[in-house]
UniProtKB/TrEMBL annotation:
Protein name: TIGR03085 family protein
SUPFAM superfamilies per UniProt: DinB/YfiT-like putative metalloenzymes
Length: 209
C-alpha cells in the first residue's frame, strides 16, 4: 500500500468513527465539510479553482455545500475512501500529489480532538515528508514576514521566507515542520528560536501553499 492510500484509509476510518460534526483544524469546518472538500478536490475539477483563487471561492463553496446536501456523511466518506478521477487510475500520481494533502488533513482531524498524541511514522514516510518540505519551503513560506530556517531533527536544513533581514529558527521532526509550514503553527510540535517579536509574527502568519 502506498503512503497516500494508507493516509486515505486511516483518515476515512477516523471520519467514520467521529461522525459529521467533529471539529477540525480547518477554520470553520467540521469533519463533514472536510470530507466534502476532499471529494470535491478529486471528483469536481471544475470547482477546484476556488481552493486557491479567491475570485472563484464562491463557486467552490457552493459545489462543496451541494455535495453535503446530496450525500449523507457515510456516503461522502465512502467517496473519499476510493481515489477519484485520474488518481483512481494512476496510483503513482495519487502518491505524488495526495500524500501530503491527505497526511495534513488526517492530522487536521486528529489534532482537533482532545488528548491527541503524535504518531510514530515509518522512516520512509518521514523521509518523504522532509524531501517535500525541503524542496517546497520557499513556496510554503512565501508569505512569512521573516526569514525562516527549518531544522529537521535527525538532519537537514531548509530556508524560506524573505532572503534578507532577521530569521527565526524552527526545529522539529519532518512531520511537525510540514504542519507548521502548512499554516498549522499553533498545533505543530516545534521549537522556535529568534527575536520574540519575529517569533510572534511568524506564529500568526498565513502560511501554506
Amino acid at each position: 500500500m502506498t503512503h497516500a492510500r494508507g493516509e486515505r484509509s486511516a483518515l476515512c476510518d477516523l471520519l467514520d468513527r467521529l461522525g459529521p460534526d467533529a471539529p477540525t483544524l480547518c477554520t470553520g469546518w467540521t469533519t463533514y465539510d472536510l470530507a466534502a472538500h476532499l471529494a470535491l478536490r478529486e471528483r469536481r475539477p471544475d470547482a477546484m479553482g476556488g481552493i486557491a483563487i479567491k475570485a472563484l471561492a464562491g463557486y467552490t463553496a457552493s459545489v462543496q455545500n451541494g455535495l453535503k446536501a446530496r450525500h449523507p456523511f457515510p456516503e461522502l466518506v465512502g467517496l473519499v475512501r476510493k481515489p477519484g478521477g485520474v488518481y483512481g487510475l494512476l496510483p503513482a500520481l495519487d502518491e505524488a500529489v495526495n500524500t501530503l494533502e491527505l497526511f495534513v488533513h488526517h492530522e487536521d482531524v486528529r489534532r482537533a480532538q482532545p488528548a491527541w498524541q503524535p504518531r510514530e511514522l515509518p522512516a520512509d514516510l518521514e523521509a518523504l515528508i522532509w524531501k517535500r518540505v525541503s524542496t517546497g519551503a520557499r513556496l510554503m513560506l512565501r508569505r512569512s514576514p521573516v526569514g525562516v530556517v527549518l531544522h529537521r531533527l535527525g538532519g537537514g536544513v531548509a530556508l524560506g521566507g524573505p532572503r534578507g533581514g532577521s530569521r527565526v529558527e524552527v526545529t522539529g521532526r519532518a512531520a511537525e515542520l510540514l504542519m507548521f509550514c502548512f499554516g498549522r503553527q499553533a498545533h505543530a510540535q516545534v521549537e522556535l528560536t529568534g527575536d520574540p517579536g519575529d517569533v510572534a509574527r511568524l506564529r500568526e502568519a498565513t502560511l501554506g501553499v
